[in-house]
Each structure stands twice: as structure tokens, then as C-alpha cells.
Amino acid sequence: MRHLVILGGSDGTVSAFRAARRLGLATICVDMRPDAPGVAEADEFLHLSTRDVPAVADALRGRDGLAGLLAPGSDINLPSLVELARLLGLPCGLTDATLRASTDKLHFREVCERLGLPGPRYCADDHWADDHWADDADPALRPPLPVIVKPVDSGSSRGITICREPGELPAAIAHAKEVSPSGRAVIEELLTGEDLCAEAMLQDGRIALLGLSRRVTAPPAVVAVGHDMAPADDVLEKEVVRQLELVCGDLGYRDGPLNVDLFVDGGQVTLVEMGARIGGNGLGEALGLMHGVDTVEATVRLAVGERPDLTPARRGPAHVRVLRAPSEGTLVSIDGLESLPDGAEVVVVARPGDHVVPYTECRAKLGYVVDREPADLDALIRVDVR
């Protein structure tokens, strides 16, 4: 039997494990956490850090039937994916340039700037010293307040702070650097307009499938509690496609999934950051539901060297809603899932007895629901925490 190695076992990997099973592939999950959601979905578990590439390579080298590698739902494992693919001689569609743009938000800004695409004013955290701009910092690079401070290389909405006063910057920078694997942060002008997410599939350097979704949030938190994906205005979609194909062409990325954050203000599209992988929070599944194509299966096929059929069968809305805890405590039960509409895809990653916390970052979710209709989970689902 052919085996697919999936790096990481977070909630964003669950759909990939299930898609691989539907395609007749055995799966190997690599993760440091034996209780990670993906472990229960896998046929085999390697209790190793995904960042310990030599150890993972040693555990896999020489095994029969290794067909491919996948790192869905998060950018954090993409560097290991590229290195392991080279060491083990497995398919990989990521170029070095694509990898860097996906894992370094500062570099992605530089790519967009070089290509002449719109963007916020931004700078690295070293332009700010204690309670003022560094003396050697170029005034032209100082983003005006309000700004958003975030790690350059961390996902899941971790370490993000919006600052409206100069005095808020030191704590925000320290927080971002604390969760950044490289200890770096970026300070960006806070964009206005519609906060959208683009989920796409590339084939032969062209956008074959695109879904633009609007984030559903619960202010003042910035983390999305849902996404509403639907066909957009033709002019908007064409501009998003133009910019995405321009960036991917520059990076040499031709085939595979793409997840991009962007803002639209007065018709101007501004790309914020990208990841050359399936989006988390059910966005990969939502794109498939919107077009009638199983995009997660398509991504698995690409990972094992196959060419998927991306011909759309429909074009309609898709919605994602996040299951979340009302308070910190021990999860007793999640009741009411049976009341969801027929055809809704439900992924539950928390179990009774788990310690749960309020949903202030993506990794705190209890699961998610994907459907053609927007579910009112607060009315349908009861999460009991004690």
C-alpha cells in the first residue's frame, strides 16, 4: 500500500487524512503531541517533532510505499516538507521562493512591493526601540498609527495586536516576538476595507478555482469565528486572479493549493500574506463545496505526484462556522450536532475531558462545520464546559 506522510496533526490536517483514506492511501502522522486531532485519523503515528528533519528522515528512509508528503492547514511545517521531499526523493511543488514567501511575512511584503502591487507601509520590529522609533530608522518606512503588529513567521492568529497609541507598541512587539520561531515581528499600517480570504487551486500556473470569503468575527477579537465564501463581482475576482498569478509566477509556484489574506478598499485589492497550502478552519473544504470539486482530495493527489481534475461542477456559496468554548474549563459535551442540516461536513477535534479555553486564537477551536447554508451554531449547538 502507498503511504502519505502528513506533517502535523492539528485540526487543519483532519480533512487531509480523511481524503487520503478515500483515495486508498495509508497515512503516517508526524507530531510531537500524541493527543493531536490528526493522530486519531492516521494509520500510523511518528512521535517526533516535525522540525526535527533528520529524525523524521531516518524514521522514513528505506520504507516501502512512501508516495508523498503533505503539510496542510499551517505554514509552520512547510520548511520541513521541502527539506524532507529532497532527502527522500518525494514529489514537492514548492520552490524555495514560494517557501520563503509563505513563511516570512516581511519577505512577502517585499515581493509584492517589487512587483508593483499595492501594500501597507511596513517595517521590521528593529525600527522601534523601547518607546520611540530607532534613530537610524528611515522615516519613510514608519507606518502611521494605527498599526498591526504580528510575528513574521507564525500562524493561527497568534501574537497579533492592533496598536492605536505609541505606548502600546513595546508590549505588542514583545508578544509577537515571543511566539515567532525566529523571534522577529513586523509592524504594518492597519488596512481598512473588507477583510477577505482567498482560497485557490493553481494548475499549470493559472488559478483554476477561486473562492473569496468574508471573515465572521466577534469584536474586539481579531480571530475569525467563521467564513462566508461566495461568488464575487467579476471585476474583483479578475483583479484577485491577476495579482495571485503575478505573485505565483514570480515565485515559480505552478500547481497546488493557495491561501491568501487580502483587503479590498474602494476597488483596490491589497494582498497581505500567503501560504502555499490548504487553508485551515475548513477553508479548503469550503472551496471544494463552492465549486463541486473535492479540493482536499486534489491536493492529496498532487502530493503523491498525480494530476487532479479541477473542472468545476457548480458555483455557489459555502460557509464555515467554528465550534468554540464559552469559557475556560473541562469540556463535558458538545450537544446538538445532529440538528445540523444533512450534507453539512462536521469536524470535531475536542473530546470530553479536554481542557478548553475561549476562542481567542485558531488553535483553541473545538472543531468546525462546513455547509452551503450559514449555520447559527450558537442557537443549534450547546457546548457544556465545567
From TrEMBL:
Pfam families: ATP-grasp_4 (PF13535), LAL_C2 (PF18603)
Domain of life of the organism encoding this protein: Bacteria
Annotated InterPro entries: ATP-dep_AA_Ligase, ATP-grasp, ATP_grasp_subdomain_1, LAL_C2
SUPFAM superfamilies from the UniProt entry: Glutathione synthetase ATP-binding domain-like
A GO molecular-function descriptor: ligase activity
Keywords: ATP-binding, Ligase, Nucleotide-binding
Protein name per Swiss-Prot or TrEMBL: Biotin carboxylase
Species of provenance: Nonomuraea wenchangensis
Lineage: Bacteria, Bacillati, Actinomycetota, Actinomycetes, Streptosporangiales
